[in-house]
Automatic annotation (TrEMBL):
InterPro entries reported in the protein's UniProt record: HAD-like_SerB, HAD-like_sf, HAD_sf, PSP, PSP_ACT
Keywords attached to this entry: Amino-acid biosynthesis, Hydrolase, Magnesium, Metal-binding, Serine biosynthesis
Taxonomic superkingdom: Bacteria
Cofactor dependence: Mg(2+)
Family per record: Belongs to the HAD-like hydrolase superfamily. SerB family.
EC number annotated for this UniProt entry: 3.1.3.3
Phosphoserine phosphatase ACT domain segment(s): 86-155
Species annotation: Angustibacter aerolatus
Name of the protein in question: phosphoserine phosphatase
Residue segments, region Disordered: 165-184
Reaction catalysis annotation: O-phospho-L-serine + H2O = L-serine + phosphate; O-phospho-D-serine + H2O = D-serine + phosphate
Length: 393
């Protein structure tokens, strides 16, 4: 469906609010405003329900009793203030989600200038250009509604000047995305229950991360170092990790991997992905066996943030030009230090404090928050002779 006419506040909100009561899902949106004239096109997936048509007609035929010049004079000058992007990700993306964001934009006295689709697969993503808005206040306004509506919403300045990226969310295991490499090693040592008990104490707040790590590693004393090969074989890349790194590298980003796990497991993955920097805890080995001790400082919450600063300094970049991706409380300092902190399938406390959140299980969805369309990614992959399936592990 296409709506065209004089631009005025509330058109986008009115349309998607009307559609929210129908069974439609949003596949594509394009909105532009040229010299006060608005064109809004929406592609919907629907079973032909007449409620969709009725909702659209109700908005399109809304009576207006004043011309464009009089309308603009009545509501005053265009909103002043900054410009920002609002990015919505959904699988599916519903009219209710778009309506909620449009309502919050209007409530702040801001204006939607343009909407464009960033991706249709594996999630539907649209980017909304807003004038007159404020990033912190709009981010707070949409955060709660986004959770209720089952979509991800990121509010950011018009362009994140990012040139470096660090992540702790590259990997998972077949058993659980939260399974730690120390747990896999403990299984080989026959002490999995002991390590699980230490992890549980840490989750209850009885141990901090460093204490927990030292106790877990102590349980591995005497283990043959050869079992590290089995652990490495059990680790799988998060879907989309290859595409994310490959695309960022094409764009000239420096990419780093920082982990509270073990470098003996992390480094081979970093090499596989051609990551520029890798930082994790190191296990002490003597005579081919683990001693149960960690070498050097523990890579904890503060250590991850320090690693980000070190990476940025090594590349001659200010922290404002960095992106950090994480999923746990140990990532919070790193997310806060970065120019853009993204919570990926994270705990609620992390999502609440991060600049943006992604809850779909594809790491390359982070690209859409940086304004990189899916089509451009696929075109670049095709030029290199790669198949879209290569993004999966």
């Amino acid at each position: 469906m296409t709506l065209s006419g004089d631009d005025r506040p509330g058109v986008t909100s009115a349309l998607f609010t009307a559609l929210a009561g129908t069974p439609a899902t949003v596949l594509d949106v394009e909105q532009v405003v040229v010299r006060g004239h608005l064109t809004l096109a929406v592609l919907l997936a629907t079973d032909g329900d007449d409620r969709v048509r009725a909702a659209a007609l109700d908005v399109a035929e809304e009576p207006r009793h004043e011309g464009a010049l009089q309308a603009r004079h009545r509501r005053g000058p265009r909103p002043c203030g900054g410009r920002l992007h609002v990015t919505l990700l959904g699988a599916p993306l519903t009219p209710a989600a778009v309506a909620a964001v449009a309502r919050q934009v209007a409530a702040q006295g801001a204006n939607i200038d343009r909407i464009r689709r960033i991706s249709r697969w594996p999630v539907t993503t649209v980017e909304v250009d807003v004038s007159g808005g404020d990033v912190p206040s709009l981010r707070r306004a949409v955060a709660t509604e986004a959770g209720h509506l089952g979509v991800d919403v990121a509010v950011s300045p018009p362009a994140w000047p990012a040139a470096a990226a660090a992540s702790s969310s590259w990997t998972s295991t077949p058993r659980s995305s939260r399974t730690r490499s120390s747990s896999l090693l403990a299984a080989h040592a026959g002490r999995e229950a002991e390590v699980a008990a230490v992890t549980e104490r840490a989750m209850r707040g009885e141990l901090d991360f460093a204490q927990s790590l030292h106790e877990r590693v102590a349980a591995l004393a005497g283990l043959d170092v050869a079992v590290l090969d089995d652990v490495r074989a059990a680790v799988r890349l998060t879907p989309g990790a290859r595409t994310l790194v490959r695309t960022l590298k094409r764009l000239g980003f420096t990419v780093a991997l920082v982990s509270g796990g073990f470098l003996e497991v992390v480094q081979p993955l970093a090499d596989l992905l051609h990551v520029d920097h890798a930082h994790a805890n190191r296990l002490e080995v003597r005579d081919g066996r683990l001693t149960g001790r960690v070498l050097g400082d523990v890579v904890d919450r503060a250590g991850k943030a320090a690693a980000l600063r070190r990476f940025a300094e090594a590349e001659g970049l200010p922290l404002s030009r960095t992106v950090a991706i994480g999923d746990g409380a140990n990532d919070l300092d790193m997310l806060d230090a970065a120019g853009l902190g993204i919570a990926f399938n994270a705990k609620p406390v992390v999502r609440e404090q991060a600049d943006a959140s992604v809850t779909v299980p594809f790491l390359d969805a982070v690209l859409y928050l940086l304004g990189i369309p899916r089509e451009e990614v696929e075109e670049a992959d095709a030029a290199d002779g790669l198949d879209p399936a290569d993004s999966l592990p």
